[in-house]
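#structure-requests
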Amino acid sequence: MNGKFLVMDKAANMPSSCWGTYRRVAVVELEPGFDDYPKMISTRARGVKRVVKTWERRHVGTTSRCAFERALSEALDMARALENSA
């Protein structure tokens, strides 16, 4: 694997009955030579080679240990490990 790994977060699609804020987190591998930030979390996005893992519908709370922050921390660790193994 010679690509660069990136952690992305975007708004999650939720029903209108949900009052809180929910986000999705993903680790994506970028194509070699692509230096821009992808527009979406998808393999169809320009520059994205593959989506390694996604965390769907993570609640954004007020503390540093909310589900979104835990997913973000796990994604950063995964991206760092993949960069070091490549």
